[in-house]
């Protein structure tokens, strides 16, 4: 049994917990299960009797209750070694309306069961109106009806390191408080045949016969005998077909290294007639088209000795576009030539002597990749432009906010100039709110500074400032009384910060001396006893003389309107932070804030899927010929990624210009090629930041080195959630893929960032590929191989059972060769549904493969 799962035979909730008719295995059960409820007030009881609804009245199950069906519906080649099963959200669903209480042995028959019948041996009638679907077959196609208790159970994924009683209590609590950790399951214990079509169905186990309920089939029913026809009411059903494989272990065992003759990642292209480029070769010249991933160590074939014959005409064609701008700047006659990829972003329309722009435009393989990027944009241009215009509205709003911020900053900057002409006190009065965000000392605002200084605290209060402000009450009154006095003379009496009386510390009486043997203390601990130590008030600390110039210094050095505007606008609109440098990065704190910005649209779509829509071979050349049940270790090709995205952005810039989109020419719209889960990740930086001397190989490796695993096999189709990891021998944890995708139902690639392929594929490196069966999708069944010593239930095969029929017969098929002692966690055969789940549970399988054996011929 898995260490992460615990099985319970049943769970009951609601009124069903109070049913007291014990399940003693009898065939006939009363339909009328009555319960008595009462309410008691002041010792007086009021009783009422009600009946529990019998199971035969249930006509349907909400499909949202179904968590998982195994095999998945319409599976064409399911494994024949596992039992079909179905999982429900409600952990008590299989026993919710069972009109019985558990037996002394802890067994409780469910009112539902899962059956699995060969399509050739049944008749299925879909439901009509309120009537459920019906399935008609014979008893030989059905499991024993008196053993349904053994094939229904509850699964809990809570901590199972505690005792069973604690687990059960925690499980019941988790039913309501932690959805998803507890679920119920029905199993059909049938041995499936290879290459056979089946229908699995959830059916009623009980049928009504007057006032009693009887088994719906088998012993005790009205339909006994293997050949007797039985019609069952169906609440859920699906179909599937088995294949040759028996289990995950068998499927994963089929995987092996791809044949060394298979080359992945490059495809020769005939360059004899390269379109509009005036060059031709006879005999034909071939170069390799290199895709987004390739065999490690592969060096694509280029023009080699013929490079000069190609590069010269291409360079001349590309330079024509800029020659007319230089020689005839007033000419309206445009030059239409082949695309000069990256010209807008680099703001350079002349082929340089070296660097990425030359590498991108003069290499046939790189021009192919860039051309594919441009073609993808042309194909989807309407959708991309719709997204761009949606973002344009946000750009207009951002520019509006930016203009308002600049206006506010200009007004504040003018006001600051006026503040420099004020006295220190007027400065503190008028700019009190701004000064609250400055510091005149370590951690001190001007208000706190006044409070700790010789100046009266009230002088910084709003009421006092209103009274003595210029043009305030006191000044108006003084002007009336002294009409001939000048303004400065009137203000002189109010400039209290400038008066001498506050510049000297006041006299304080000396503190009393502490008695000998006592400790001066500012207070006492609660509950402590101090018999000899009198209360002593600490000596007051003399305040520092007030210096009005500190307020002016804080104003001059810390009030910066443009810096405040910059912080405010980038906080409100975070996207602008990319285009407006933060305050700390600007040497001049009062540097101008732009009133308008031109932003290119950003589309975070991963373009690899749009390329794969054209052809899987364009993404990974040779992948369509990749053999079945094969594995190959590849490396990502950053040169292709950089070239492809450069071509896509070049074409998008052309489209933006054509449609007069308000964007900066050369802006980078697409930065993602690989489909990483984090949409903020990118494979290239903005093209405008590419240094002219850099190489494409360095510019396209957004995630660093990347190892890629390519798998085609039955295990991928049968197990969509199979896990692939890589790691080094002896490491505690293996790495999960960072991104990947499916290229068909049986073909998958997985990429591992920051894993150097050259190192990982070295024969002595110890790197391995781990293939792991999904641990969150438990399976049940028996192995199909020949029986061996049965020392544990995990060794159990069909060959160990005494009865070799189509079903496990709990009462007749006990494996007599089982030698392990019961107890100590060993489940007893047939005890209950939890025991049978533990016995037939199939532990997840892992397989390790050395990466060096998967590298192909190029390593």
> Span between N and C termini?
42 Å
Give a quick account of the main beta sheet: strands, pairing sense, barrel closure. Answer: 6 strands, mixed
Outline the low-pLDDT stretches.
486-509, 511-536
Helix and strand composition category: alpha+beta
Q: Please tell me how large the radius of gyration is.
A: 41 Å
Task: State the share of residues found in helices, binned by percent.
Answer: 25-40%
Number of helices: 22
Q: What does the average pLDDT come to?
A: 81
The percent range for strand residues is 15-25%
The oligomerization state is single chain
Number of strands: 28
How does the overall form come out from the CA principal axes?
Answer: flat
Architecture blueprint of SSEs:
Elements: E1 6-8, E2 29-30, E3 33-41, E4 44-52, E5 66-70, E6 85-88, E7 112-118, E8 123-125, E9 133-138, E10 152-156, H1 164-177, E11 182-187, E12 197-204, E13 206-209, E14 212-215, E15 229-241, H2 248-253, E16 256-257, E17 266-270, E18 286-290, E19 293-295, H3 307-327, H4 343-346, H5 356-362, H6 364-379, H7 381-419, H8 424-430, H9 432-435, H10 446-451, H11 462-468, H12 473-481, H13 487-492, H14 548-558, H15 561-572, H16 608-614, H17 616-619, E20 630-636, H18 638-658, H19 696-699, E21 706-712, H20 714-718, E22 723-728, E23 739-742, E24 747-753, H21 757-760, E25 767-772, E26 779-780, H22 833-840, E27 841-842, E28 846-850
Parallel strand pairs: 16-20
Antiparallel strand pairs: 1-10, 2-14, 3-4, 5-6, 6-11, 7-12, 8-9, 9-15, 10-11, 12-15, 13-14, 17-18, 19-20, 20-21, 21-24, 22-25, 23-24, 25-28, 26-27
């Amino acid at each position: 049994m898995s260490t992460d799962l615990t099985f319970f035979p049943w769970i009951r909730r609601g009124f069903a917990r109070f049913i007291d008719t014990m399940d003693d295995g009898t065939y006939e059960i009363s339909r009328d299960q009555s319960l008595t409820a009462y309410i008691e007030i002041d010792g007086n009881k009021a009783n009422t009797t009600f009946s529990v609804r019998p199971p035969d009245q249930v006509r349907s199950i909400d499909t949202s209750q179904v968590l998982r069906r195994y095999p998945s519906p319409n599976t064409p080649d399911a494994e024949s070694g596992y039992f079909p099963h179905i999982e429900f959200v409600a952990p008590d669903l299989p026993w919710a309306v069972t009109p019985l209480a558990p037996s002394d042995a802890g067994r409780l028959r469910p009112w539902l069961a899962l059956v699995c019948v060969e399509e050739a041996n049944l008749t299925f009638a879909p439901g009509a109106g309120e009537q459920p679907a019906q399935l008609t077959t014979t008893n030989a196609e059905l499991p024993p009806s008196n053993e349904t208790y053994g094939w229904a159970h509850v699964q809990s994924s809570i901590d199972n390191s505690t005792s069973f009683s604690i687990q059960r209590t925690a499980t019941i609590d988790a039913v309501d408080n932690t959805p998803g950790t507890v679920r119920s399951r029905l199993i059909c214990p049938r041995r499936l045949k290879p290459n056979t079509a089946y229908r699995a169905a959830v059916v009623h186990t009980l049928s009504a016969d007057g006032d009693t309920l009887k088994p719906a089939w088998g012993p005790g029913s009205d339909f006994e005998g293997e050949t007797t026809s039985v019609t069952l009411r169906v609440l859920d059903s699906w179909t599937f077909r088995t294949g040759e494989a028996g289990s995950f272990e068998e499927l994963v065992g089929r995987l092996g290294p791809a044949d060394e003759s298979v080359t992945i990642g490059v495809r020769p292209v005939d360059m004899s007639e390269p379109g509009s480029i005036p060059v031709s070769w006879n005999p034909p010249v071939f170069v390799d088209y290199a895709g987004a991933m390739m065999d490690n160590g592969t060096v694509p074939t280029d023009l080699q000795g013929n490079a000069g014959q190609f590069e010269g005409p291409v360079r001349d064609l590309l330079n024509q576009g800029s020659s007319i701008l230089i020689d005839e700047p007033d000419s309206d006659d445009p030059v239409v030539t082949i695309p000069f990829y990256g010209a807008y972003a680099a703001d350079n329309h002349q082929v340089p002597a070296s660097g990425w722009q030359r590498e991108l435009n003069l290499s046939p393989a790189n021009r192919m990749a860039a051309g594919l990027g441009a073609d993808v944009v042309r194909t989807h241009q309407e959708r991309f432009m719709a997204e761009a215009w949606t973002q344009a509205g946000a750009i207009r709003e951002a520019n509006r906010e930016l203009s308002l911020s600049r206006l506010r900053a200009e007004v504040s900057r003018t006001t600051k100039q006026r503040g420099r002409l004020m006295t220190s006190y007027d400065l503190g009065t008028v700019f009190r709110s701004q000064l609250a965000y400055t510091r005149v000392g370590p951690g001190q605002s001007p208000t706190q500074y006044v409070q700790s200084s010789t100046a009266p605290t009230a002088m910084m209060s709003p009421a006092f400032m209103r009274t003595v402000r210029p043009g305030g009450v006191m000044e108006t009154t003084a002007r009336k009384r002294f009409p001939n006095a000048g303004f400065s003379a009137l203000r002189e009496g109010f400039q209290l910060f400038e008066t001498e009386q506050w510049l000297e510390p006041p006299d304080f009486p000396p503190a009393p001396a502490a008695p000998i043997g006592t400790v001066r203390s500012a207070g006492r601990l609660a509950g402590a006893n101090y018999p000899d130590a009198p209360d002593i008030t600490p000596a007051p600390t003399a305040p520092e003389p007030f210096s009005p110039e500190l307020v002016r210094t804080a104003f001059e050095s810390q009030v910066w309107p443009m810096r405040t505007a910059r912080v405010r606008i980038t906080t409100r609109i975070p996207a602008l932070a990319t285009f407006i440098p933060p305050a700390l990065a600007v040497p001049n704190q009062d540097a101008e804030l732009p009133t308008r910005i031109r932003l290119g649209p950003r589309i975070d779509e991963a373009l690899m899927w749009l390329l794969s829509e054209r052809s899987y071979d364009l993404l990974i050349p040779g992948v369509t010929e990749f053999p079945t049940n094969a594995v190959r270790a590849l490396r990502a090709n950053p040169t292709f990624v950089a070239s492809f995205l450069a071509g896509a952005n070049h074409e998008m810039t052309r489209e933006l210009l054509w449609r007069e989109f308000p964007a900066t020419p050369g802006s980078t719209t697409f930065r993602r090629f690989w489909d990483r889960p984090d949409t903020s990740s990118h494979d290239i930086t903005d093209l405008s930041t590419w240094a002219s001397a850099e190489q494409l190989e360095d510019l396209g490796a957004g995630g660093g080195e990347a190892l890629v695993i390519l798998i085609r096999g039955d295990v991928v189709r049968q197990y969509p959630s199979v896990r692939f990891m890589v790691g080094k021998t002896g490491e505690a944890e293996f790495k999960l893929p960072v991104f990947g995708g499916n290229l068909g139902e049986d073909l998958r690639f997985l990429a591992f960032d920051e894993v150097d392929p050259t190192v990982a594929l070295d024969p002595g490196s110890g790197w391995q590929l781990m293939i792991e069966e999904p641990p969150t999708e438990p399976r049940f069944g028996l192995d199909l191989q020949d029986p061996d010593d049965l020392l544990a239930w995990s060794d159990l095969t069909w060959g160990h059972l005494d009865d070799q029929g189509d079903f496990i017969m709990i009462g007749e098929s006990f494996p007599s060769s089982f030698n392990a002692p019961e107890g100590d966690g060993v489940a007893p055969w047939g005890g209950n549904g939890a025991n049978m789940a533990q016995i037939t549970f199939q532990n997840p399988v892992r397989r390790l493969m050395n990466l060096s054996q998967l590298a192909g011929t190029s390593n």
